Amino acid sequence: METRKLGQGLEVSAMGLGCMGMSDFYGGRDESEAIATVHRALELGVTILDTADIYGMGRNEELVGRAIRGQRDRVVIATKFGNVRNSDGTFKGVNGKPEYVRQSCDASLRRLGVEVIDLYYQHRVDPDTPIEDTVGAMAALVREGKVRWLGLSEAAPQTIRRAHAVHPIAALQTEYSLWSREPEDDILPTVRELGIGFVAYSPLGRGFLTGRIKRIDDLEADDYRRTSPRFQGDNFQHNLRLAEEINAMASEQRCAPSQLALAWVLAQGNDIVPIPGTKRRNYLEENVGALDLNLAAGDVARIDRAIPPGAASGERYAPHALRAVSR
Fold first, then answer.
1. Which residues contact 47 (CB under 8 A, 6 or more apart)?
2. Residues known to be catalytic
3. What is the mean pLDDT of each run of 10 residues along the chain (327 residues)?
């Protein structure tokens, strides 16, 4: 397994595993298959597992903790705090207050069953708490040995700079894929200037770029994507044509559409680590196969022409969620 470096010393596999869908948002639960998927990821050399305290209202961290039991030394655990949900699962807001940082970390450590979190992200930036206060509290966790490396998610360039001035930030996690290329404008140049690694979540466009979603009814009834703007009406039909473009080019490369889409992300720089999420071993194996697909410069340019920045139709989040990004 190829490795890549996040920040000034955190070495991880070139591709990680997003664990969110094992417990939340995408419908369908099979805990035994989810744990088997984590075990298979470790066998394949995947080292970084991504979770968060709100995924499944804490259940995802518990699942990851059970899955890595006895194999802790093979895993880089990345989890997050800051997004707060009500007991019914609805979004309550963002909390970056220092006392909440500490409470969240202690709770995540208990659920994961570990003594230290390798990479601890602020999931979303709290507009009511100075980033210096939040990162200051996160830095205290590093000094106490509860956390090894710090990260931010969906933060704006100036916020990243202010945070990094308080304590080195190892990774910035933001959505990035062929249909979400906004980080290329300001985010990627900023983190590269500062020596911060970039973790790309939803590198398969929430599954759309796999070519498996042909109609909205392909999604389960409780799948949140049913309300996502890019999966609605005319947006869906427009984006379906983008997926068909990827499928056609993947056929020429004799690979799966998902592998082409992931290879494109991997080709954007060796400081980028995509973390495609899956809860099934067969999809995991397909995703990891993208690491064997070496796109030539001409292939990358052709993909860029076929799906240029801004090609996707619809916002990547509903309005209330969109307000919480790029702060």
1. 1, 3, 12, 13, 16, 74, 75, 76
2. 55
3. 96 98 87 97 98 96 98 97 91 96 98 98 98 98 98 98 98 97 97 98 95 90 89 94 95 96 98 97 98 95 94 92 91
